[in-house]
Amino acid sequence: MDVYARPANNSALKEKAADSKDENEILPPDHLNGVKMEMDGHLNKEFHQEVFLGKEMEEFDEDSEPRKNRKKLMVIFSKVDINNDKKIGAKEMQRWIMEKTDEHFQEAVEENKMHFRAVDPDGDGHVSWDEYKIKFLASKGFNEKEIAEKIKNNEELKIDEETQEVLDNLKDRWYQADNPPPDLLLNEEEFLSFLHPEHSRGMLKFMVKEIIRDLDQDGDKKLTLSEFISLPVGTVENQQAQDIDDDWVKDRRKEFEEVIDANHDGIVTMEELEEYMDPMNEYNALNEAKQMIAVADENQNHHLELEEILKYSEYFTGSKLMDYARNVHEEF
């Protein structure tokens, strides 16, 4: 069983990844925007905010002036409320979620163009595994010319075990992204599938296989609830970590039982997980819309009014707006 697949809290890893983003820009990102589950099997904790705010997510900073954040949120509300009846229904929220997800897709496509040029030095429109490997190792601090020369002459590369393990995993993904007929050369579209598997049905299947492989303890290629919520031994070191673990388990249990296990038989198959992972699945978007509405629907009318969204702003934007009621009336 691969213990590394399920750490209780991987925020430190994400911070490290964020710090080295420029250095390792050709690496497939750990965090996929607008997708409910990460490639390592973790739930995307920022998913609700990503599909509600889209590109504007960065503007809702904790340090931002609350009045400005309120105004931004009011503008978003008016955009989601397409029939202008001063409330948001599930279909309106579903349309908005699909729109914001597509926005993340387009952003990934633009980034991919830049990254593809970086790894295609001869500009022939194709990247070989060796070309990518050289750029990857250079981003890890290896001398690019020396590595290129050694690869050209089939000489042994002295690479530490951790880097070699990452390379082996990347090579598996490279092969999966190489559409038939396989030539081990990736064009720009295939490179997009390599960096962003959520863009390709074939790569989604590969991603699902990887997640199930890491979580499946009895080898039946399915996931039980206990497998999905299990934590590696020895990750809890203190009470604070225990609290994080408890929340982690609670979130995963809820997602497994209420969303991923579509037929509620206590087992998640590859097909169910693939449907869940697909960010452009309209049924999932509608289900997500209903969940988001339920969180803040205080008057139980199955719609969201502006006051409700402002009151539960932390859920939708990550930013807490104080005195929401008094201020919203002032601004109206």
TrEMBL record:
Primary location recorded for the protein, binned into one broad class: Golgi
Cellular component GO terms held in the UniProt record: endoplasmic reticulum; Golgi lumen
UniProt keyword annotations, A-Z: Calcium, Glycoprotein, Golgi apparatus, Metal-binding, Repeat, Signal
Ranges for domain EF-hand: 68-103, 107-142, 203-238, 248-283
Keyword presence, Calcium: yes
GO biological process: calcium-ion regulated exocytosis
Compartmental location: Golgi apparatus lumen
Residue ranges of the region described as Disordered: 1-33
Matching PROSITE patterns: EF_HAND_1 (PS00018), EF_HAND_2 (PS50222)
Any Pfam family hit: EF-hand_5
UniProt cross-references to InterPro entries, sorted A to Z: CAB45_EFh (IPR027240), EF-hand-dom_pair (IPR011992), EF_Hand_1_Ca_BS (IPR018247), EF_hand_dom (IPR002048)
Keyword Endoplasmic reticulum found: no
Domain of life: Eukaryota
Positions with biased composition (Basic and acidic residues): 13-24
SUPFAM superfamilies reported in the protein's UniProt record: EF-hand (SSF47473)
GO molecular function: calcium ion binding
Family stated for the protein in its record: Belongs to the CREC family.
PANTHER family in alphabetical order: 45 KDA CALCIUM-BINDING PROTEIN, RETICULOCALBIN
Protein's name according to its UniProt entry: 45 kDa calcium-binding protein
